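Input chain follows. Return structure tokens only.
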Amino acid sequence: MGRVPAGTSNPVTRRVAIGTLGAGALAWAAWPRQPREHARAPRGRKILHYWEKWTGVEAVSLQRVIDVFNQAQNRLWVVLVPISDISSKAMVAIGGGDPPDVCGLFSYSVPLYAEAGAAMPLDEFPREDWCGEEGYLPNVWKLLTHEGRPWAGVNTCYTLGLYVNRAHLREAGLSESPPRTIGELDAAADALTRTDARGRIDRAGFLPNLPLWWPYSWGVLFDGRLYDRATGRATADDPCNIRALEWVATYPKRFGREAAGAFAQTFSRSTHSPQDPFISGRASMIVQGPWLANFIRAHNPGLDYAAAPVPLADGLPEPDVPRGLVEADVLIIPRNCRDPEASWEFLRFMQRREVQEQLAQAHCKSSPMRDVSPGFFAAHPGRVVGVFDAVARSPRSDALPPTRVWPQYADLLGGAFEAAWRGADVAAALRDVQSRAQRLIDESAALRARRAARGGVP
């Protein structure tokens, strides 16, 4: 799903072992025990090991799709293997010459795996029965490609939206429609927040650190960008990004730095449970992904809520066109896998529109495909999925920066968020991020050039 933290609360902060390609002595450690699915494989089938990060209900829904593939032909048998810390473990296995046959990663892994020669470009395979660029949403296609070549298939995508508790809005005498501008969001947050006699927040109207999973996401709402694709340069100190972080910094001033921090910390381990701040009614508004509707349905089906694109800064052009960052889960074919053509057959199957729609509905997400079937939205369990679909399709939305150092860049942006929350100078903090992020990008490019000059993997 891309939402679950690894060490911290943001999936992009998962560290990747960049230097492990070729570490054959470590490859054995990456391989898990053989799953029970091996025993079910019919005699004569070629087994494909599919490593995936998903667990729980997401893995269950994925297994249903795999079952369809396994039963639809008599040559291959795909075995789903759950892997934690998949980005680094897969790199070790590939570098050691014993990779899985298919691997599920995060979209931010694509530049790294492409540049390290750890993934096979999909344009090396026959185009037959694969939708190609015209089949995906433009913002999703950006995530699947690197330097003009496709390196991955999609395995669900997501954006963010603003969920609002309509009962709380009515109670405060506000419109039941979600705020559409930052000014409206701030006014609603003030009206909805409840504190006790000691100044502690009992109910948060809205807090940008709840949850603190996407500290890099606010700039786009002010028309900011994090990366210039034309020049390959970071743009962390874009004036619009500075405005966005200055806005974030108003919240600890408005509600108290300690009080707002303590409230968010209270719910740091209860997200998506019955004690989730929004599901339990302790937060009136929250920025979250489409999957939250699944958990609302499971834990508080009577909750009266609505959703809308995250509000935009006042005065932006085309204010009715939503903005946001698009992220995705992806599938790659590892370099040196045993039978690339067999892996391609399975990956191609996973890119079918009906398969992607089945996964999207099970994970309560919008479809990553340009066209959807006539009954997709009617059959979707998430009644607000159209909001997230609109953000994913918007020409004003953006994809994650296509650089292999994005995880480190994202960490730097998270540090700037924390500094702004503590009252630091926002412009200075983002200038520091800009300098450090660009240095990482430049060092990565220089390393790649040196490897290419030596005739090695770029």
